[in-house]
Amino acid sequence: MGKTDIKHAIEQINEQGSKAFVPYIMAGDPSIEELKDQLIFLQESGATVIELGIPFSDPAADGPVIQEAGKRALKNGASLHKVLEALTSLKDVLTVPIVLMTYINPMYKYGLNKVFTDIEQAGVSGLIIPDLPYEQNSLISQYISQTDLALIQLVTLTSPESRIKTLAEASEGFLYAVSVTGTTGERANISDKLENFIKRLKNYSSVPVLAGFGISTPEQVKEISSFSDGVIVGSKIVDLQFKKQQKDIEKLIHAAVK
Amino acid sequence: MTTYTQPDLNGQFGQFGGRFVPETLMQSVIDLEQAYRDAKEDPDFQKELNHYLKDYVGRETPLYYAENLTKKIGGSKIYLKREDLNHTGAHKINNTIGQALLAVKMGKRKIVAETGAGQHGVATATVCALLNLECVIFMGKEDIRRQELNVFRMELLGAKVESVSQGSGTLKDAVNEAMRYWVANVEDTHYIIGSVLGPHPFPEMVRDFQSVIGTETKKQIIEKEGRLPDEIIACIGGGSNAIGMFYPFINESDVKLTGVEAAGSGVHTNKHAATLTAGEVGILHGSMMYLLQNEDGQIQEAHSISAGLDYPGVGPEHSYLHEIKRVKYESITDDEALEALQLLSKTEGIIPALESAHAVSEAVKKAKNGSAEDIIVICLSGRGDKDVNTVKAALEDEK
């Protein structure tokens, strides 16, 4: 598994006339033991790629729902080590590419010289590091370059054009278009600027462009995936997972994936 | 040593510092850096800043020879840099006035800030009232309970105080929440960080605004003693009063610089805030620095009787000065700080803040071993009025 698997999974679904759907769940919420069933459920429900969060004590880029999920996961003993252990044991059953979303400090503490190879060996295809902006990539580049892991860049509505171009060109796997100015979490209204923004990104990017942050209803999924290559849904999935409303998760996925 | 020129162009002090923030904030911190560089070179900005420092804050603050304390200890001569005499009672306003003027220059009329005990919150609310800026202060739920009066002061000054119940409801959670607010409102809001923390250019900018402490001290001690001091001692939470005091002396290799962390119940217990003494390198709140963290890289809670030192990280420049051994970092326990607070109150009639009492305690230890020719300067970062309830409760507990 690696960079190209993510890109191919999205392109393949797009070729079939569907859009990509990337659900986010917090690893270890409610427990590491349940991770296997959670991942297999998402895989069987048609997720294109799965984004798996690593809990962190100080998730400054996340809204209240993911903060609470992280807190529950930490309380139940989740850690990067344990998540990688669990993923390693699931390598044979998971066919959907997995992307880890983790703040930089747990990886730094794990040891930059071994964390990327361990993540790759656990079957993970890519990484999203919300507090590692493009300029700080030099901290990890010599280590991550020894693996085939995709480093997915986030690009936001506040980024100026020259920056947007740089980030879009640098992103691997897919480009993560942050659809609202703020933290993760559900929003009633998504900015009108978004459609235009995604179109600009598609001009620069050689990988698919997915939109995320604030997407919470099947209607929003339909609307936003009409002008993007797919969507990422985090807080809403975490919330539904917590409430055990699997049917509603399927509805969200099927709004993009036919 | 060679001339000190930190940070580098990437905002790094050696390996420390940098800009570890979400992409949404990147353009804003890049713009802030440019605005700060322009302001630094702008005589009108400097003139305005100096005007407020003099006539509003009350600078310069005295460098006071603590003769009674000196005689009582019977060793080195002890001077106090009286930052407690600033408007609002601490050094915090040196930074908030500078950043608020910068925000106005950038056309941002909304301010967000975090506060632990409330000192930085009060200093921020004060300058926002002065300059007619909208002000939101994030404060941990637990801290709001402990510092009811400061919450009222901020509200009286026109600020909105938001309670933070996430995490442990203390300072680091208030920083997280202030950053989240900034991410969502970055287009019209400036974040006034209260210490030498956060992404570049904050650690450099806050240091520069606080350097007025050391610059004045240098001039004053030469006037009084005709020479530089042998040692300068300051307390460290995030480290803003200490860096402001130390920075103008960094190239003076004969001046010993000592930072004092909070050892809480002791550095060998799990209740302390001695980040440089017992922490490890990591990344939090936009910067690489020493942190209190567990084996999985989760940030640990800090503990100190002094709310202003109760932070699990320490500014990137202090992390660097520790690594190159230019500053020596010591730690003082809650009990030692309480003792020093009472000593200074009784000998000099000055009730220091609990934070500053850590520096006083370390200075007393050093002065005992010194001679009458040695000179020690303490940065008395704030006054102790805000702490009297805490001190009263702690002393009653001891009985």
How would you describe this structure to a colleague?
Chain A is globular and about 40 Å long. Chain A is an alpha/beta fold. Helices cover 46% and strands 14% of the residues of chain A. In chain A, strands 5-4-3-2-1-9-8-7-6 form a 9-stranded parallel sheet. In chain A, helix 8 links the parallel strand 6 and strand 7. Chain A contains 12 helices and 9 strands. By secondary structure, chain B is of the alpha/beta class. Chain B has 16 helices and 14 strands. In chain B, helix 11 links the parallel strand 9 and strand 10. In chain B, helix 9 crosses helix 11. The model of chain B has no long low-confidence stretch (mean pLDDT 96). The chains are: A alpha/beta (258), B alpha/beta (399). The interface between A and B is large, with 43 and 38 residues.
Binned strand content of chain B: 15-25%
The largest inter-chain interface, given as chain pair and residues per side, is: A-B, 43 and 38 residues
Largest sheet of chain B: 6 strands, mixed
The SS-based structural class of chain A is alpha/beta
> What's the structural domain tally of chain A?
1
Gross morphology of chain A: globular
Strand content of chain A: 5-15%
The CATH topology of the largest domain in chain B is Rossmann fold
* Largest beta sheet: strand ordering of chain A: 5-4-3-2-1-9-8-7-6
Strand order of the largest sheet of chain B: 3-4-14-9-10-13
How much helix is in the residues of chain A?
40-55%
Helix content of chain B: 40-55%
CATH topology of chain A: TIM Barrel
InterPro entries (chain A): Aldolase_TIM, RibuloseP-bd_barrel, Trp_synthase_suA
Enzyme class (chain A): lyase
EC number (chain A): 4.2.1.20
Keywords (chain A): Amino-acid biosynthesis, Aromatic amino acid biosynthesis, Lyase, Tryptophan biosynthesis
